[in-house]
Design brief:
Layout (H helix, E strand, L loop, with lengths): L2 E6 L3 H12 L6 E7 L4 E7 L2 H7 L8 E7 L14 E2 L5 E9 L2 H10 L11 H11 L4 H11 L2 E9 L2 E9 L4 E4 L4 E4 L11 E4 L4 E5 L4 E5 L2 E3 L4 E2 L14 H6 L2 H12 L18 E6 L1 H18 L2 E6 H4 L10 E7 L5 H12 L3 E6 L5 H5 L2 E4 L12 H20 L8 H8 L6 H11 L4 E6 L2 H17 L2 E6 L16 E6 L5 H12 L4 E6 L5 H4 L4 E4 L8 H19 L18
Parallel strand pairs: 16-17, 16-18, 18-19, 19-20, 21-22, 21-23, 23-24, 24-25
Antiparallel strand pairs: 1-4, 1-10, 2-3, 2-4, 5-6, 6-7, 7-8, 8-12, 9-10, 9-11, 11-15, 12-13, 13-14
Bound molecules: 5-amino-5-deoxy-1-O-phosphono-D-mannitol (M6R).
């Protein structure tokens, strides 16, 4: 999604472009910068990749300040007009914005009545116009304060004024951070921008605004100036000896180190101490909430915990949770799972859970994220920075931490003792599988417009996640069904040579799943089986291909099931000439609802 960088210091162009490139992984479709010298502001915008912007930027003599933006279109198509920065009518206010202004149409109507003209389809342009409106009757800072008071929704803003050498910023329900070093100040929507710039940063709370000049950074809340303390910049990354062509592949191969990291972190008892604040005698149900891949992790985590504790557990898609009037209260523990910790729907679910008095636990990768900060308890997934839009190592790390979470709850409910043996075994024996064979499969799948995946129970969840990986990186329509549902409708879609991928790693339903697969084969389907069991040679004859994974003998099987499909999805996209790190229309961090 959108990214923001602001820089106060010499030669801002170079820094802005460099830092916007660090934000590229979040997904965007246009980019722009505004660069200011004492009395001049130059604006450059372009559609598409940052290198297009880089090609058109001209040096602004004596430049001392600048703001930059990568835009992921929400209001208006991705073009140069709608790209940020946006301008007031008098050209004095220059704004970049992440988030959504929910009342922008009402505000726009009022401004139009007051004689303002609009050149873009964005919600952001109204901010620039409002700033101009309010600056007619007050100081620059008053104009910012009055403008912000009118806005509903989520907004992180970086603002310049033509006649002022301060770098202004505002933060509300969309991430924004400030860092300074001896000479310069940087504002950014992701702390990855501060790498090599500063060892510490300010995490701006919601509702705060402020400005920086060459000597100072000042923060304000509704009541006046406030002092903030800094946090240490701690970007947990894995250095890889091999040079991978894409982050997606690099990150798949960081699964094993992530699991080792997790084991190391959670073997220490004090990491579980935070759960002492929860009164487990009151807890009657658990709700797991996430989006996309994180939701798939929730499905597995919910089953894991229910099996371990026999307490009611359910998983929800975050965008549905909020509006489904969930029955939650003081007897509920809501578990929010997210890689980024900034997914708008998941944050909204957290807010609702808190309002209703439920306990909240965040299972998150980005340790400085809003979700990590705002939940009652926080379990980091320790996967290191994940850049590829397709979540891979983070999914496996989420499953490992959900397993640990189930162990923690088991212990806290007095049902038995905390034990990581299964995860340790998995870590010791972890394998990525036969990549040559996965490449052959990817080559075969790339010619298909659609494929099907089936499974029962937890295998169905693996199929859902494998389908999502194939869809988002290869643009193949991969549909997932419960194996038992085949004959209730979707068999009608099976034609000769339709690929059906069968996940069969649960012993208690193995024969049932295989019979369902047979029903598809009898109608012409080509079956690809993923299993952890040995089959007799004549039984294997019915399968076009078999992927054999290790048997985790329990809830961690989902980790072993998905890794081959992450690799297959990666190669399918490569063979189709798609960049798997930046699938079309998608963003890494979905910060709008
Ligand atoms: O950052 P989050 O884990 O909250 O993100 C949730 C989804 O947007 C994310 O998992 C998405 O589905 C991925 N692109 C899947 O690979």
């Amino acid at each position: 999604m959108c990214g923001i960088v602001g820089f106060l210091g010499d030669n801002p162009e170079k820094i802005l472009i460099d830092r916007l490139k660090k934000l590229e992984y979040r997904g965007y479709d246009s980019a722009g910068v505004a660069v200011k010298s004492q009395n001049k502001v130059n604006i450059f915008k372009s559609k598409g990749e940052i290198k297009n912007l880089e090609n058109i930027i001209k040096t602004t003599e004596n430049a001392c300040l600048g703001i930059g933006h990568t835009r992921w279109a929400t209001h208006g198509k991705p073009d140069e007009i709608n790209a940020h920065p946006h301008l007031s009518s008098d050209g004095k206010w220059i704004v970049v914005h992440n988030g959504i202004i929910e009342n922008y149409l009402t505000l726009k109507d009022k401004l139009v009545n007051d004689g303002y003209n609009f050149y873009s389809e964005t919600d952001t342009e109204i901010i620039a116009k409002l700033l101009e409106y309010y600056s007619k009757s007050g100081s620059t800072l008053d104009a910012i304060k009055n403008t912000v008071n009118k806005l509903n929704g989520s907004f992180a803003l970086c603002i310049l004024h033509k006649d002022d050498n301060h770098l202004f910023f505002v933060k509300n329900r969309s991430p924004l951070y400030v860092a300074k070093n001896a000479d310069n100040v940087m504002v950014a929507s992701d702390v990855v921008c501060f790498k090599g710039f500063s060892e510490e940063y300010y995490n701006i709370p919601d509702g705060y605004y402020g400005f920086a000049d060459s000597n100072n950074v000042k923060f304000f809340d509704k009541l006046g100036e406030v002092q903030l303390s800094t946090s240490e910049l701690d970007l947990c990354e894995f250095e890889s000896e091999t040079t991978f062509k894409h982050f997606m592949l690099k990150e798949i191969y960081e699964t094993a180190p992530s699991i080792k990291n997790i084991l190391e972190h959670y073997s220490l008892k004090n990491n579980r101490k935070q759960f002492d604040k929860i009164d487990f005698s009151k807890i009657k149900k658990f709700k797991f909430v996430g989006c996309g891949t994180a939701y798939h992790a929730c499905l597995v985590g919910s089953d894991m915990l229910e099996e371990k504790t026999n307490v009611e557990c359910n998983a929800y898609v975050a965008s549905e949770f909020r509006y489904s009037n969930p029955k939650i209260g003081e007897d509920t523990l809501v578990v929010l799972v997210s890689q980024s910790g900034e997914t708008a729907d998941t944050l909204a679910a957290l807010e609702l859970a808190r309002q209703k008095g439920a306990y909240t636990v965040a299972i998150v990768n980005v340790e400085y994220s809003t979700l990590a900060k705002c939940a009652d308890c926080y379990l980091p997934i320790k996967a290191g920075v994940e850049v590829g839009v397709a979540s891979t190592k983070a999914y496996c790390a989420q499953l490992a931490v959900l397993y640990i979470f189930s162990q923690i709850i088991y212990e806290k409910m007095g049902l038995g003792s905390f034990n990581l043996d299964d995860l340790e075994n998995l870590s010791k024996n972890f394998e990525y599988g036969n990549v040559t064979e996965f490449k052959l499969l990817a080559d075969a799948l790339k010619y298909n417009d659609r494929i099907f995946m089936i499974g029962r129970g937890v295998d169905y969840y693996s199929a859902l996640e494998a389908s999502l990986k194939i869809k988002e990186t290869s643009y193949i329509n991969s549909d997932t069904y419960y194996a038992g549902e085949l004959k209730h409708g979707f068999l009608a879609l099976i034609e000769n040579d339709t690929y059906v991928i069968v996940f069969a790693t649960d012993k208690k339903v193995l024969s049932k799943t295989i019979s369902n697969a047979e029903e598809a084969r009898a109608r012409g389907a080509k079956l690809i089986l993923l299993t952890c069991f040995d089959f007799k040679p004549h039984e294997l004859d019915n399968f076009h291909y078999v992927i054999k994974v290790k048997n985790a003998n329990g809830p961690l099987q989902s980790i072993l099931n998905i890794v081959p499909w992450q690799i297959i999805a990666y190669y399918t996209s490569i063979f189709k000439g798609i960049n798997p790190d930046k699938p079309r229309n998608l963003a890494k961090s979905v910060t709008v609802e």
